[in-house]
């Protein structure tokens, strides 16, 4: 039985031809996932015609038409590459590029929460980035601190949990304090988990997992023969989430490399390489990446029967 | 008149030979031009798309893999002609054991046949002086395939010009797991021995010795890396996966952190010189930037 929900029509705007998918019966199944902002939906039926527009609340949780809700990835990872080049193209300083990058990240975090993605991991700062000029590194960390402070309320309101992974030993103490406060304050939020990789490298992650396991062997907690892939998974820094393996990895700026990000966890991840630089990525780039993901056939080494 | 078919046959054979020589010459010229820029030292291939190729051409099931093998021989020839020293191929994943038993068996039979053919005098191994390694959890293979693989490894151990690494019954996570296990065993044994030898020192030097001990106790990156099976080769410069799928499928995860990734849409049996050249030109484009970064690190 199909159900009909008809909010009071307030404005009428044209619907692009061919976009609506309709049932044969007169009762129209209205699902928020098929409605986009500012779009009028015309229901052709054998018995009646219904025209309505969605309300503001329903617009908040709508998925773009191009995406299917049942094929959304649970965990998306992003290598946010291209801030420096973006700034250079615009004739700006590198730090302006990073500021623009933070704005782009805010948009993606908001969209991820709305579209039902459960974990979003972003590569903010790699171990290789330590070779950058000191002034740029200092700026990045102070930008990170400012963003954490200003966005804390937003994260709480949007039910976003923040976690940080990576080697925090070289980070400034003020940043570390903020990170701990942020993690503590948002640990019960359930809608979206935002994992920020700072001072992170995939090899370092496996190394620290190995050290953890070696310690447990030394303490007599486990036997060497009991070491298996599950144990390594438990010790990796991504053990802070229920879904440690990304379904989709997006890298912006057109570079075709993984750059030592989430090494173990990327075994079966679908990779998507976007041409845009990170500050330009935005909603349309994200939809393109997700659409590409939804069209892939994932076999995990087996065969599609 | 009876001689005519024979003459035509000889002529067409001659033309074919001439064409091959012309193509070979053009290819070597092209390689000389490309070699003016940096050439990768190590190329890795994920040979995906054999079955889809068979389906596309309306062939029977096993023929896709046979066509794939021919494509592989051609690519190896090009790589070694170009001066690439290491080539790694993903022949069979541990996950592939989950396929239908008939397919797994036919793949094992094909691999046994091809592994044995590597020892023949006319094989590519002798032509280019290839040292062959079989990388993976070989205990998972049946006795015949494992014995053939070990025989080839022993027979080619003295070759030093170029190297072919065949990943069979391989998973990157399995490789890392084995390396982690070995590192833990080595460190554990070291720690037991080390703690035993400090018992007879006096108080001050005992404390100092313990500090040194604590420093050395921690496993380092090199400990894991030296226990990796792929440590016999440097990291790949380029990873090429055919058939357009863009994922790593648990292949060389540890080693390809900074590798150039290439995902040509062609199915593996369709892979050709142009895909290799395209991959190398892309590699050359980003090479200078990466070298600069490596020096800084």
From TrEMBL, chain A:
<dbReference type="InterPro" id="IPR036424">
    <property type="entry name" value="UPP_synth-like_sf"/>
</dbReference>
<comment type="function">
    <text>Catalyzes cis-prenyl chain elongation to produce the polyprenyl backbone of dolichol, a glycosyl carrier-lipid required for the biosynthesis of several classes of glycoprotein.</text>
</comment>
<comment type="pathway">
    <text>Protein modification; protein glycosylation.</text>
</comment>
<comment type="similarity">
    <text>Belongs to the UPP synthase family.</text>
</comment>
<keyword id="KW-0808">Transferase</keyword>
<dbReference type="InterPro" id="IPR018520">
    <property type="entry name" value="UPP_synth-like_CS"/>
</dbReference>
<dbReference type="Pfam" id="PF01255">
    <property type="entry name" value="Prenyltransf"/>
</dbReference>
<dbReference type="InterPro" id="IPR001441">
    <property type="entry name" value="UPP_synth-like"/>
</dbReference>
<protein>
    <recommendedName>
        <fullName>Alkyl transferase</fullName>
        <ecNumber>2.5.1.-</ecNumber>
    </recommendedName>
</protein>
Automatic annotation (TrEMBL), chain B:
<comment type="function">
    <text>Catalyzes cis-prenyl chain elongation to produce the polyprenyl backbone of dolichol, a glycosyl carrier-lipid required for the biosynthesis of several classes of glycoprotein.</text>
</comment>
<comment type="similarity">
    <text>Belongs to the UPP synthase family.</text>
</comment>
<dbReference type="InterPro" id="IPR001441">
    <property type="entry name" value="UPP_synth-like"/>
</dbReference>
<protein>
    <recommendedName>
        <fullName>Alkyl transferase</fullName>
        <ecNumber>2.5.1.-</ecNumber>
    </recommendedName>
</protein>
<keyword id="KW-0808">Transferase</keyword>
<dbReference type="InterPro" id="IPR018520">
    <property type="entry name" value="UPP_synth-like_CS"/>
</dbReference>
<dbReference type="Pfam" id="PF01255">
    <property type="entry name" value="Prenyltransf"/>
</dbReference>
<comment type="pathway">
    <text>Protein modification; protein glycosylation.</text>
</comment>
<dbReference type="InterPro" id="IPR036424">
    <property type="entry name" value="UPP_synth-like_sf"/>
</dbReference>
């Amino acid at each position: 039985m199909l159900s009909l929900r008809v909010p009071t029509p307030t404005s009428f705007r044209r619907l692009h031809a061919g976009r609506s998918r309709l049932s044969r019966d007169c009762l129209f199944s209205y699902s928020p996932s098929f409605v986009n902002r500012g779009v009028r939906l015309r229901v052709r039926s054998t018995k009646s015609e219904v025209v309505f527009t969605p309300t503001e609340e329903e617009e908040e949780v709508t998925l773009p038409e191009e995406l299917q809700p049942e094929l959304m990835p649970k965990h998306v990872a992003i290598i946010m590459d291209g801030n420096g080049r973006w700034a250079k193209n615009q004739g700006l300083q590198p730090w302006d590029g990073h500021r623009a990058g933070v704005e782009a990240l805010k948009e993606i975090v908001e969209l991820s929460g709305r579209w039902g993605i459960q974990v979003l991991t972003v590569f903010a700062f790699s171990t290789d980035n330590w070779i950058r000029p000191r002034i740029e590194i200092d700026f990045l960390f102070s930008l990170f601190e400012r963003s954490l402070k200003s966005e804390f309320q937003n994260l709480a309101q949007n039910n976003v949990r923040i976690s940080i992974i990576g080697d925090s030993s070289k980070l400034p103490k003020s940043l570390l304090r903020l990170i701990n406060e942020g993690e503590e304050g948002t640990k019960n939020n359930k809608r979206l988990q935002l994992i920020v990789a700072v001072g992170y490298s995939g090899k370092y992650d496996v190394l620290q997992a190995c050290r953890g396991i070696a310690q447990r062997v030394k303490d007599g907690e486990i036997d060497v023969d009991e070491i298996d892939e599950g144990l390594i998974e438990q010790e990796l820094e991504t053990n802070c989430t229920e879904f440690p393996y990304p379904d989709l990895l997006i890298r912006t700026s057109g570079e075709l490399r993984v750059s030592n990000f989430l090494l173990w966890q990327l075994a079966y991840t679908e990779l998507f390489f976007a041409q845009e630089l990170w500050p330009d990525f935005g909603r349309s780039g994200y939809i393109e990446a997700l659409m590409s993901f939804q069209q892939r056939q994932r076999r995990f080494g087996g065969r599609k029967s | 008149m009876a001689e005519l078919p024979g003459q035509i046959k000889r002529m067409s054979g001659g033309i074919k030979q001439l064409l091959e020589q012309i193509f070979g010459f053009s290819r070597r010229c092209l390689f000389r031009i490309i070699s003016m820029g940096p050439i990768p030292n190590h190329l890795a291939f994920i040979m995906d798309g054999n079955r889809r190729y068979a389906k596309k051409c309306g062939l029977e099931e096993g023929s896709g893999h046979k066509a794939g093998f021919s494509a592989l021989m051609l690519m190896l020839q090009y790589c070694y002609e170009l001066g690439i020293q290491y080539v790694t191929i993903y022949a069979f994943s541990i996950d592939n054991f989950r396929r239908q038993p008939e397919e797994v068996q036919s793949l094992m039979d094909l691999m046994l046949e091809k592994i044995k053919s590597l020892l023949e005098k006319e094989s590519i191994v002798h032509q280019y002086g290839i040292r062959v390694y079989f990388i993976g959890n070989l205990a998972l293979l049946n006795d015949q395939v494992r014995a053939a693989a070990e025989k080839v490894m022993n027979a080619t151990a003295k070759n030093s010009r170029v190297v072919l690494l065949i990943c069979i019954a391989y998973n990157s996570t399995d490789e890392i797991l084995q390396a982690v296990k070995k590192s833990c065993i080595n460190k554990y044994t070291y720690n037991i021995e080390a703690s035993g030898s400090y018992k007879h020192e006096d108080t001050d030097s005992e404390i100092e010795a313990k500090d040194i001990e604590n420093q050395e106790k921690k496993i380092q990156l090199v400990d894991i890396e030296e226990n990796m099976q792929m440590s016999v080769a440097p990291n790949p410069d380029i990873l090429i996966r055919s058939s357009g799928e863009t994922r790593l499928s648990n292949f060389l995860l540890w080693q390809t952190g900074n590798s150039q990734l290439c995902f040509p849409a062609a199915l593996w049996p369709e892979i050709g010189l142009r895909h290799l050249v395209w991959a190398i030109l892309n590699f050359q484009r980003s090479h200078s930037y990466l070298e600069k970064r490596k020096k800084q690190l």
